[in-house]
Protein 1
Amino acid sequence: MDDGAERIFAALRDVSQSGAPLYLQLKKNIEEAVKRGLIGPGDALPSERDIAAQADISRVTVRKAVQDLVKSGVLVQRHGSGTFVAPRMERVEQSLSRLTSFTEDMARRGMAARSQWLDRGIYTASPDEMMVLGLSASELVSRLSRLRIADETPLAIERATISASVLPDPHEVTSSLYMALGKTGHRPVRAVQRISAVNLGEAEAQLLAVPIGSACLQIERISYLASGKVIEFTKSIYRGDAYDFVAELRLPGPDGQEGEAT
């Protein structure tokens, strides 16, 4: 048995038949082990069977405690790999004055970005999409929905819509949407964003590995070509515990032009 497993089991042996329900005792013991540094970010938990045997409790009890800790963001589960202590979240500072893709933005920070595709396909445009993109009722749109992940931490859910006449095959987008649009001369040069605070529902909280009801930032982005034509309509959800959006403000000069703030 490795040192990590020994530390975890040592933290679980206090689970007994007295006091609170067993799953709550186990949950508290794992939380305390994380807080005290006995098990750290990225450490793998032993299997449900091994934990149950060491703590002398049922696997159902272990599963309930682990699921609660996953919902609260203490643990993360990776399909086919197991359960791990969640990484410590370092906040990402995002400038509101630069129009960049998620992939480009994470690359500048030295973070490994990837996406988990939730949906890619051609659809009939919704009334909102027709209005924003300036489409007729007969025109189709490409929708791209994905979970954006940096250094294996889910940070955002992004749902982008592009006219199908511009992006006839959404599967052509493998990483950066803006890179794909740039290849056909349709990369946006400016955008207007509306940011609002909302609380996460169950499905989105599960995708972002945070508790249900967690505060997050909802961003609607309308992006434009140099000609002024709208090219992209995106609705995104960003983790409130991970992102800070920063805007630079300047004091107008006496003639109404922008000047340096002092």
Protein 2
Amino acid sequence: MYCLVINSGSSSIKFQIVDPASAATDEPLASGLVEQIGEPSGAITVTINGEKSREELEIADHTVGLKRAFELLDANGVGPTQLEFFAVGHRVVHGGKLFSEPVLIDAQIESMIEDLIPLAPLHNPANLDGIRVAREILPDLPHVAVFDTAFFNHMPPAAALYAINNEVASEHDIRRYGFHGTSHEFVSQQVPKVLGRDPEHTRQITLHLGNGASAAAVHNGRAMDTSMGLTPLAGLVMGTRTGDIDPGIIFHLAREAKMSVDEIDTLLNKKSGVKGLAGVNDFRALREMIEQDNSDAWLAYNIYIHQLRRFIGAYMIILGRVDAISFTAGVGENDVEVRADALADLELYGIKIDPERNAQRSSDPRVISTDDSTVKVLVVPTNEELAIAQKAAVLTQA
């Protein structure tokens, strides 16, 4: 039996057909992307058993896009009318304080997700669109919401709360929620398996480094701290986001540059980070610029690494003892130099990367530290879709 996993964005829908019993590195049976929803020219790309096909058409809304995607799957024998699905799993970015576990979706849950839109105005509305469309098209299947913030819901109060007025924080639900939780949880569960350790006695730092980036401190399977906060803007330097900055910069820009709240929001979320410093946010392009001695690219890279090392150091102190540090997501899994530079000159702390192991390319989880490294360093490919399918299977007892 299979799970249909849906990740709905404002103008796109990603989906996969996943067997929850698959290995972490297995390819899904089918996957697809509906893009440019609401634009004059859209497209649907479907990949089945490694074979890719693409159809260009106008996609008026999410309903049109998802229905057509299902028709293409049906035409290839892997759609809802041919395969036996046990559930539809939905990625939902923000669960607020309400959701710390996956839930079966009904009208009340939809309403609760809608109530959380002020905390994630760019993400939850799109996630909700995907839920409503899929429930309409596939009404006889259980639909499961899996929340990005859930893994961090029970962090210690010292890590979760900000030092601002209690009444204001309580009234407006201000706290550190964290994001990429499905990825951090999945990777942190894989690490003990790779190392042959008891997960209940493993302290680790997980580094999800993609265009969005976050770090987490995980103590015996539980999140103790994370770099993102009320929103995904906080923490590490990212592709287009600033990461942590002095909040006074916002007031300064409003007063001195006469920028509006929306202009500052756009600046910090979409025009900053590596892109704001170097003009590109793809690390492959950044690497090419560095090799050409571009000073802006080199500065952007150094700021990125400096901030990453700050969080690694902080989490080493918070955990007290670190058994493993793992890299995941696009940059973490593929950029050899980022991994080496992030953990350079830390032999005193028992961290030693093996250059040959680090340079190897593989889709499998692997150790890249030396045999005598006290702290094991790993590359662990993330698989959020598989994680969502597995959580849906547990909830529906499939």
